[in-house]
Amino acid sequence: MEMLKNVSQAFKVPEIRRKMIFTLLMLVVFRIGSNIPVPGIDRSVLSQVFTGETGLFDLFDLFSGGSFSNFTIFALSITPYITASIIIQLLTIAFPYFERLAKEGQEGRKKMAQITRYLTIVLALVQAFGLTVGLFRQAVIDQTWFSFVVIILVLTAGTAFLMWLGEKINENGIGNGISLIIFGGIVARIPSGLRSLWTQYSDGSLSIVTLLLFAVFAIIVILGVIEVQQGTRKIPVQYAKRVVGRKMYGGQSTHIPLKVNQAGVIPVIFALSILQFPLTITYFFPNTAFTDFVTKWLSPAGNPGVWVYAVLNVLLIIFFNYFYTAVTFNPVEVAQNMKANGGFIPGIRPGKATVEYLSRVMSRISFVGAIFLAVIATLPTLVGQFTGLNISFGGTSLLIAVGVALDTMKQLENQMVMRNYQGFLK
C-alpha cells in the first residue's frame, strides 16, 4: 500500500509524471518489437526447436520475454550488453588501462560505456551468426547468403536498438533502462504461466488446495526476497577532525553499507549457464549415449538428475557469489580511501586490521547471501518435483523482478525527496 501511495503521489508531479509516462511508452515499444518476427523464417520449423528441454536457450528466452523462442527482431534481447558489461567489469581487475578508466570519474565512465557499446555490437554479431547459421538454419526459408546476412543484421540491430532504448530511459525516464527491459520481458511471461497453472487445474492434474498452498508459499517467498534484497550491514566509520587553511573538516560519523546480497542475481545466472550448457549440447547430438547420460544425471527432469542438478546448483551459486563479491567489493581499496580521508572504524586500527575486519564481515555476509540465492534458485525445481507444478516463473525471474522493482521505487522516492528538499528546509 505504501508503494502504491508513493506512485500516486509521484504521478501528481508534472515532471515525474512525464518521466513515468516516457518509461512506460518505451516499455510498450519494447513489447511491440518483441512480437515483430524476423523475415524469412519458417514458423512451423521454428516451433519444433523449442520442444522439451532446451537448456541454455531457456535463459535467453527468459531475458527476451519469449522473443528468443519466437525468433523476433529482439530475439537476442539485451544479453550481449549484459555480457559485455560483465567482461568490462572483470577487465578492470586484470588490466591497468581499464582500472585507470574506472578511477577517472565521469570521463572515464563515458569511455568505458563507449567500449561496452562497441563490444555489445561485436557480441551481438557473433551470437546472431551462431543462431542463424547454426541453431535456426533449418528454419531459414531462402538458404542464400543474402538471407543469412539480412537476418544477422536484423538481430544485431534489434540489440542495438534495445541498448539505445535503455539509455534513453536512463536519461529521460525512471529507473535503470537495461534492468527495466529485462523486467518487462520477465513480467510479460506471467500471464502464460498463470494460464498454464489454470490449464493444469482444469485438466484435474492440480487440486484447489495445491494451488492455494502454492499461492501462500509464493507470497512468503516474495516477502523473503524483499527483506534480504534490502538487508544491509552498516559498518560505522568515524572521521577525525582536521584543519585545512581556515576551515575544519571531518569530525563526523557515517557508515559503510554492506548489502547481504552484494552480488545480486549474477551468481545464479553464472551457475545456470554452466548447468544448462550440457543440456544445450544434447540438442545438437540427439539419441546418443551422451544425451542419455545428461538426461539421467544432469537434467532437472531426470532421476536422480534432479537431485544432482540441485546440489551442483547450490555449490556453484555459493562459489560464484564469493567470486563476484570479491570482484565488486575490494576491502583494500576501501581501507585505503578511509585512511586517506582520516576515517577509521571505531575499535579497529587503520590499515591491515581494517582490511582484515572488512574481509571477515563481508565473508560472513556473503555466506548468508549465497545460501539465500541457492534456496531461491533451487526452490522451483524442488517444488515442481514434489507437487507436479510446472513453474515457468523461476527463482532467477523472481530475483530480477523484485530487485528491479525495488530499485525503481527507490529512485522514484529519491526524485520525490530531491524535489521537496527545499520544502524540508522551511
Give the overall pLDDT as a whole number. 81
Reported for the largest beta sheet, the result is: 3 strands, antiparallel
Count of alpha and pi helical runs: 19
Distance between the termini: 29 Å
Uncertain regions spanning at least 5 consecutive residues? 422-426
The H-and-E topology, N to C, reads as HHHHHHHHHHHHEEEEHHHHEHHH
The fraction of residues assigned to DSSP E strands is 5-15%
Strand order of the largest sheet: 4-1-5
Helix content, binned percent? over 70%
Which shape, going by the Cα principal axes? globular
Radius of gyration, whole Å: 24 Å
Q: What class do helices, strands and sheet pairing give?
A: mainly alpha
- Total number of beta strands: 5
Short summary of the structure?
By secondary structure, this protein is mainly α.
Please specify the SSE layout and strand pairing.
Blueprint: H1 2-11, H2 14-33, H3 43-49, H4 57-64, H5 67-70, H6 79-94, H7 96-102, H8 105-135, H9 145-172, H10 177-187, H11 190-203, H12 208-230, E1 232-239, E2 242-244, E3 247-249, E4 253-259, H13 266-284, H14 289-297, H15 305-328, H16 331-340, E5 343-344, H17 352-387, H18 395-419, H19 421-425
Antiparallel strand pairs: 1-4, 1-5, 2-3
How is this structure best described in words?
It is a single chain. With 426 residues, the protein is mainly alpha-helical. 72% of the residues lie in helices and 5% in strands. The protein has 19 helices and 5 strands. The strands form 2 sheets. Strands 4-1-5 form a 3-stranded antiparallel beta sheet. A two-stranded antiparallel sheet has the order 2-3. A hairpin with a 2-residue loop joins strand 2 (242-244) and strand 3 (247-249). The chain is globular, with a radius of gyration of 24 Å. Mean pLDDT is 81; it is low at 422-426.
